Amino acid sequence: MVEGENEAMRRHLRFMNARNNPVHTLVSLFIVAVLFIFFQGTIMKNLQRTQMMLLNSGSEQHNKGKYVHHIKHVAAPDISRINPKFAAKYKKEIGIKVNGTLLRGVKKDHRKYYVPNDEGRFTCLSGNETIEFHLVNNDYCDCSDGSDEPGTSACKNGRFYCEPELRYMTSSRVNDGICDCCDGSDEWKGVTLAPDLKLPVTDDVQRAPCSDTCLDYHHQQIHDENVKKEGILAKEEIVQKFKNQNIEEGKYGEENEFYYLSKECYVYKSPSYMYEICPYHNASQIGEETWLIGSGGELQGNFQLTMDNGASEHCPDGKPRKSILMFKCSPETTVKYVSEKSTCEYHVKFHTPAACVTSQQNADTPSEKDETPNEKDDIPNEKDDIPIEKDDIPNEKDDPSPDER
Fold this sequence. Notes:
By secondary structure, this protein is of the alpha+beta class. The protein has 4 helices and 15 strands.
């Protein structure tokens, strides 16, 4: 009996010694670590394989028929019914990434239409379809108007916007291996063409991977021409808006195109001062003290508004301060720069569609050679006028107003 109990005790001691052996513990931990790393590697490999499959899908249409997304037909969208999460951002500039979706190919001013509504869905720009927001730019065409795929070639009627050049192009050129946008944004997948593929050898044909050539002279010309096209279109809308109003003849231009400027005030901030410019009313320099630097307004030609009769304190010979607004064609209305060219005389660089003219109009533009140094991009390009090409300008469907939505 005693001998059996001793044998049991010896087995128990051997077992306890084995469990407390540090070598065995380290070996066990090592085995567990190896297994963990192996399974992690397998998971990452599968994820990479899935991403490569998506990346290499390109503009291929194969196997897309088996993916069906049900489209919910609704009434024209109300832009005010956006997701509360994005309500605060709506009035500001919206970034290129919204709710995890990259808005490639969307015009910066149109990103406000690419935010989820209060149901978390995207409303097609045609206004009669909605889809889940994560389906935007997923390389599958869901909206009949192609507005859900601006950054891929999935929709035959889709259009990709080259932001630096201010122009649209057909989405079939997206990720085709040819650099169409000067910044290469249309070739974001980096798809390369076969080396033996014969293409015309010209400076206009650049293969992916693309380099940023937006500062090249040729692309700068394209940019300037498209700025003019969009500006002329915006000017026509302004003229039509105020066409039937009782406006003093000749004061605001031949077609009263500058009248809309008298309805708003525009702010420019310099390192030292803030300027508030209210065309045809008053202009102020705001710092430790506020000075009236011009009032009223007399239009001279199509490109300059002189605002006299500002405050005369601290000016030579009691001469009143004066502001000269120098207009430049642009689709946007904004003050670009304010400088005091001489004591109590201020020059204001003002971008506005009202300054855009066609080849049939007389473009009597003042010289700006002595304007702000190192601002070459602000000097107007007086090249031949380019006729409007409607294909390069979005129509009303491409830029729906909040009321239409």
